[in-house]
Design a protein that fits this description.
alpha/beta; 6 helices; two-stranded antiparallel ribbon
Amino acid sequence: MSPSGDLQQRLRELLRERSVAHGDFTLASGRRSSFYIDARRTTMSGEGLALIGALGLERLTARGWAPALVGGLTLGADPVAYAIAAAAYAQGRPLDAFTVRKQPKAHGTAQRIEGCFMSGATVVVVEDVITTGQSAAEAITAVAAAGGRVLGVLAVVDREEGGRAALEQAGHAVEVLVTAADLGLR
């Protein structure tokens, strides 16, 4: 197995160990599911950050995406963006992160986008888990409204419930690190 294949396999294992729960769940979309993927239990772990950073950066490169920034809707996107930005820095590549708030803050500069974002920047919107694609779509809308140009979407996990297709139908290329099928959930 190649080094990136080893990383990919370990990410799948880590997600299964830390993030997958079985039972009866109501998802953020309102849908019911027999499994829940709390990717934050992986994306916020030291090992998960290292794996996601390396694999995410590799996928950006393979896709030909050279964004100035990575980020998305808080909270799920935050550690993903930070991991990829840190991996890029370790390789001497310029890449910073940003966060899209769910609502603009009511004080200070009243910004909806925090961090290193600047109008005119090219970005890749990141996500921990895609279900319906709504969180990524909301981040894309905020970035576009603030003058950013979205190259595509990168997600750690695709639940394979139509979110990827919805984003692609809206004209956004989507790259995922792991699918629900990869985790033995489909």
